[in-house]
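Students often ask why we bother predicting the structure of a whole assembly rather than each chain alone. The short answer is interfaces. A chain on its own may look different once its partners are present, and contacts between molecules only exist in the joint model. In this exercise we take two input lines together and write out one structure for the complete complex. Read the inputs first and try to guess which parts will touch.
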Amino acid sequence: MSLRATVRALPALLRAGVAEAVAYRAEMLVWVLATTMPLVMLALWTSAAQNAPIGRYGERQFVAYFLATFIVRQLTGSWAFWDINFEIRNGTLAMRLLRPVHPLFAYAADSVASLPMRMVVSLPVAAVALAVVGRQELTQDPVVWLLWPVSLAGAWLITLFVNFIVGCAAFFLESSTKLMDAWGIFFFVLSGYLIPIDLLPGRLAAIVDWLPFRYQIGLPVELMTHGRSREEAIALLSRQWAWVAVTFGVTVVSWRRGVRRFESYGG
Amino acid sequence: MIRVRDLRKHYRVHERAPGVASAMRSFFHRRYKEIAAVDGVDFDIGAGERVGFLGPNGAGKTTTLKVLSGLLHPTGGEVRVDGHEPRKREDAFLKKIMLVLGQKQQLLWDLPPSETFELNRAIYDVPRPQFEATVRELTELLEIKELVKRPARTLSLGERMKCELCSSLIHRPKVLFLDEPTIGLDVSMQATVRDFVKRYNERYGATLVLTSHYMEDVAQLCPRVIVIDKGKLVYDGTLDDLVTRIRPDRRVILRFSRPVDAADLVGLGRVVRHGGVQTVLDVHKDEVNGVVARALAQLPVSDLTVESPPLEEVMGELFARGRAAPGPTADEGARPPGETAS
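Now the answer. The structure tokens for the assembled complex follow.
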């Protein structure tokens, strides 16, 4: 499967992905509701910070943080593991393997294709965030803003690759969905999705620096809400991209071994 | 076009006895057994041929098809499809073939089939004018012009299979592997699919390899059949020849103008069914003329039909022989490896 053929097919893959993403309006509504956890956390944390700030977070800071979390989650989310797991289990992966396009690119294209619909949800939230908390709660440093899309791309890639790795586990396990559930527990607690990383106990926060979770959500959010200086941002970005490289490597190995197994046993 | 030598595909499968204790034991210590799904199969298929793979469940038909399409890696032997080694799944190879699995679909479930066609056009890099001409032709042949605009999930099984076939042929594959393409379809839809596949083969000279449990599919589509049983090739030749070898009988159906006693049928052949005004006899093919002449002379025959025994019965008998005797059966019918049917 050549890269050239894959790149040539990318616009069609994206078009089909967008068409699929908008096919179900009711499902879309349910999906939006399912991703509102940061808004729930926003309500909880702002209420907790009513009398006194918690760490560096007062009410306005919490609002800015969790609205940014909501936006970052919308822009970096991926559910590719679900499709991979399903297609390995019921054998339809065979149909993908027989096309001259790498299946992982097709899954990635599906993930990218859902972005326009997610933008429809996240852009109004961004507008509300700006109106409610004002620009002063957002990073003012233009260099950090330049680094933000890089962190966003890194966050998306780590999330996508983790999805690929967990999805590929279905080559070896009965089902990999439980594995994603287990990952989800750590993700929710250690990514900054439910609790800002700098509110975690000192030792735990230091450990979290070396784990991939915070680079999926926390880092882009911190860069948006002036949680990090330029120097800190660059240091954290280098760790984030190290995780991109690691998860990419594990993806490649898992996929190759998994497909070899699939080729031994058939779909 | 297709060359297969000493193809072997062995699986290692986990096995355990029923019960909780066995389940617990197998959690700590697994026992495996090696299964020879395909065990030393040889054949050649020429360009433009239509070949049916027959065999009982688990005989190795689908495994062979998956090896030929590059989905499964063989344990041993040599496989070439139009000069390619399928297991490598090179782009050039993938653009020449298509595997249609009757029980698995490639249509985008939530979108109209036309979207899948468009996607396949891009994936297989089909020039736009050729794509439009192919879609026009296939949708007309399959009578699905209106269906392709409706989401795939709203189509019936038969409608989906027709769209599936259309989508599979967008890049005009030179080799078409069909695994149970008519499964679950009603009789008329089966006939439509068969007719379409045959026309595609004739129009584009595509090579066709088919597996199906519906003998009618094989009888209508495939002048040549390869029978696999227990992973071994037990027959490779024409369908007519196979039928003659396994059941050298003809089925003679007699209808009478008035009820006839069973005793009057003695000596005519083996009575399969007798219902007074109609009887069904199995008669050796060399004796058919004599039996028919005697029946016409002695009995009040109002109608007479002579036909081959049903293919299902022939295959049932062939597979029953296979179960009774280990190893290849009907060896006398197998052609030497490498010889291609004409």
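Check your guess against this: The first strand of chain B starts at residue 2 and ends at 14.
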